[in-house]
Design a protein that fits this description.
The complex is a heterodimer of chains A (about 220) and B (about 230).
Chain A: H1 2-14, H2 24-50, H3 55-70, H4 73-88, H5 94-119, H6 123-131, H7 136-166, H8 178-189, H9 193-224
Chain B: H1 7-10, H2 13-47, H3 52-66, H4 70-80, H5 87-95, H6 98-125, H7 128-136, H8 141-171, H9 183-194, H10 197-232
Classes of the chains: A mainly alpha (about 220), B mainly alpha (about 230).
Chain lengths: ~220, ~230
């Protein structure tokens, strides 16, 4: 196993970079970070729209949330793969396809975190803000969201952990993230599949376990106050 | 863009492929549920045991499995694990449905790790005095669990377990990477054979959604019944 790591660790971490596109664990992290960073504003907008008093806004968004949450992420990936070329007019690469699928999928999940966060703030805050003469938008931005976001922080870190795990589905559309790279290494070594995939699992574990412990600490600290 | 061909989904070879995929997905989810539930209870009991090594084993199982994506589990159980088996057993395995066996193992472990946490919080929701009273009456650890704690824990555990079942249903789609001919696999197959992407994906989307809504409906019904029962009591 040590020999395996010594031979392939660079390839495992960054793929063919700098002689080719970035891949491996680095690509997994870039994809997950960009996914969550872009999904957050989408989720914020969708979460607020879910609580809108206007039906024309609330209903379509609620329908979207139900459809995306009721089907596997792979379904969103397949739709993105199929739809994007017909919208943009040219073939989309695997990275953008996966990124857009992640933004839609995570956006919807973050929307539910946002919605729960806002509902957790308590009606009195909104009523108080409105009675002080703030507009709807101002009450949301200045009073509700600052409180709601603080509640949401641990959930958001957990969402990042989920996203790291979700990027592995890029394997299916041929994106050279860490699971694909492991499979390529396995094809080259050929005789030691159990070790190669155990190393893959261990890498994900270290990353995700570390981050979820961090989320746990955040939560404990918040509860301690 | 060609028009949407509904008839493709209602009869003919594409219809049969998609339907067989849907049935296999359901079977996969059902089988995994049967294996994962008892395993989840065992792991939850390990995590709550008095004995420290048992507690550690439970913790390692849950965290070790939850923090690795299902896809990596699938790859390991399909490509990696069979190589570790003795030759004779390996040949028997490869003669049968190796991809389905691997998928069931990966999904069972993955689902059980998540369910174990729900069962554990369910057990912890039962007041300690219940255990103390049972023990004072002379029941052993297992009798206390089986007759007193678990029946009460079961009630609060059902809603989160239903939501895990929903995740399981969606997770069966990942089995497509190791070539299990479930819903997603057949949708992709029909898509590449007929170039009818919209139709094939619409069928899969509706199939997944229908089962998900049914499971969600079940959860809502149970919760309402639970609330009604609590109101009477």
């Amino acid at each position: 196993m040590i020999e395996l790591v010594q031979t392939y660790w660079v390839y495992f971490l960054i793929g063919q970079y700098p002689n080719g596109p970035l891949g491996g664990l680095a690509l997994t992290l870039v994809l997950a970070s960009m996914g969550v960073a872009l999904a957050f504003p989408v989720g914020l907008a969708l979460g607020i729209a879910r609580l809108s008093t206007r039906r024309a806004i609330r209903w379509p968004v609620t329908a979207l949330v139900f459809v995306v949450r009721g089907t596997p992420l792979l379904m969103t990936v397949f739709w993105a793969y199929f739809f994007l070329p017909s919208v943009t007019g040219h073939r989309t690469d695997q990275f953008s396809t996966m990124l857009i699928a992640l933004v839609v999928f995570d956006g919807v999940y973050i929307a539910e975190i946002v919605r729960a966060g806002i509902l957790g703030v308590g009606r009195g805050q909104m009523e108080g803000a409105l009675s002080l003469g703030l507009t709807n938008f101002q009450s949301l931005r200045l009073v509700i969201l600052p409180q709601a976001l603080r509640h949401m922080l641990p959930s958001l870190v957990n969402q990042f952990v989920s996203t790291i795990k979700e990027t592995s589905l890029g394997y299916i559309i041929g994106l050279s993230e860490v699971a694909s790279i492991a499979t390529q290494i396995n094809t080259q070594v050929f005789t030691r599949p159990a070790e190669v995939y155990a190393i893959l699992g261990l890498s994900y574990f270290l990353l995700c376990f570390g981050l979820s412990q961090f989320a746990f600490r955040l939560e404990a600290r918040r509860a301690g106050r | 863009m060609p028009s949407f061909e509904v008839s493709l989904l209602l009869r003919g070879p594409s219809h049969e492929l998609l339907l067989s995929g849907f049935v296999l997905s359901l079977e996969l989810a059902g089988l995994v549920l049967v294996f994962a539930l008892p395993l989840a209870v065992i792991v939850a009991l390990l995590r709550l045991a008095q004995n420290a090594p048992a507690r550690w084993a439970g913790f390692a199982f849950v965290e070790g499995i939850r923090n690795v994506p299902l896809l990596a589990h699938m790859l390991f159980w399909y490509f990696g694990a069979p190589e570790l088996l003795p030759q004779a057993l390996k040949q028997r395995l490869y003669a049968g449905h190796v991809e389905e066996v691997s998928a069931v193992i990966a999904l069972t472990l993955y689902t059980a790790a998540f369910m174990a946490e729900d069962v554990r919080s369910g057990i912890r929701a039962v007041p300690v005095v219940q255990t103390e009273a049972a023990r004072a009456l002379g029941l052993g650890f297992f009798a206390t669990m089986r007759l007193v704690v678990l029946p009460q824990a079961f009630r609060v555990t059902v809603p989160p377990l239903i939501s895990q079942t929903l995740n399981l249903w969606k997770n069966t789609s990942v089995a497509t990477v190791i070539g299990v001919a479930e819903m997603m696999y057949q949708a992709a197959k029909v898509e590449s054979a007929t170039f009818r992407s919209a139709e094939a994906f619409a069928f899969a989307t509706i199939a997944y959604l229908a089962v998900s809504l049914a499971v969600t409906g079940l959860a809502t019904w149970y919760q309402r019944r639970l609330a009604a029962a609590a109101g009477v009591a």
